[in-house]
Structure formats: C-alpha cells, structure tokens
Design a protein that fits this description.
The protein has 2 helices and 2 strands, in the order ββαα. By secondary structure, the protein is mainly α. A two-stranded antiparallel ribbon has the order 1-2.
Amino acid sequence: MALKAAYWHLGRVKLYWGALIVFLFALSEEISQAFVASRTFDLVDLTADVFGIAAASYLISLLVKQYKKSQS
C-alpha cells in the first residue's frame, strides 16, 4: 500500500512492485539460510512465500478495484 499499488504488466498479469520487493527479500533470506549451520534452504518454505505473496497481491487488486469503484 505504501507504493500505492504501483504495478506493471507481464502479459495479462499485473505485477505489483511491493510484491516483487517482498519476493526478493524472501528469496534472499532463504538463500542466506543455506550458509548458516543451524538453518537450511527450504524450497517448500519459498513456495509458501510465493503463494502468500500471490494471495496478498490478489487481495490488493480487489481493494484497488473497490476503491476506484467508490471514487467514480
């Protein structure tokens, strides 16, 4: 929301800048765990992050639509 739902299109899909930032953070955090003895890289955890980011992006798109609808 801080980025005001800024996005760009990849084909027919809206990609939100905020979602990209969160994904890059989650990816870097997962990769960094591979270098810590007490932690492990987990592809399942990264997949869960992606699903969470996708769900949040969908909810944001619904909120933006509702907001635009109420403004007109």
